[in-house]
Amino acid sequence: MRLDNYAEILRYFEELGYPLALFEKIELKEELSDVDERKFFFKIYGQINGSDYSACFKLVRPKYENYFAIREYQFVLGKGSEEIKQIFPVMYEDLLHPDRLRDPITKEAAYNLVSGRSVYFDEIRKWVQLDFKRTDENGSFQIRQFARKNGLDIEKVVSRYPITELAKEDSRLELLQSLRKGNLQSVSFLIEDREQKKFIEASPQFKTINIYDSSMKREVHQYLNEGTKGQTSGPLMKHSQSAAIPDKNASGLSEQKKRTPRQSR
Prior knowledge:
alpha+beta
């Protein structure tokens, strides 16, 4: 029996943010050649923001069909001596004929979620965050969702602060898009006519943003623009505290893929 959708599977990996190297494509094609199997796992390794990660994809072939689809993947992020694991589903517009992903949880989104940040998904119009205090039957953290309606308006909240990137339209849009993706974003605050480097991230639970100084110490929200003072968008912190999982390259994602010997399945 001939496999019909090898090219589509490669596209799935790319859309999820995991483009395969040539040797991985060859290895995947060898796995897919045995279409008598209805399920198998394919694992890749890499680095993101200086941290090691692995992603193990579950590919399934429906009964009596000759195509495979990615159903889920487990993302494992190494943080020092610890590992954080989370299984993310892979959804399609049409479950019977999976040819287009629906609201894919990309590698960037997976990294930000397991790092404790929130990611905004356009199709469901909700912010998503992992609840590290609760797990499901598979050991993955439960997912919390915050609707945009009557919730965090990231554009409105950010405009309350003297962030220099808001002065130009292109940099403003880039900043908002980065925050919606869940990134810990490097920005400059104009304070007493001097620019100060800070980092910000979205906090939909409290309808605000978290602010950190250049040393990744969390700050009190005290830098409101004139005209917005007194209009806080969430509870203020009484004391500074460190970010739970700081990035090494917070203003963007840099990575280098690596490959280790495949484990037996």
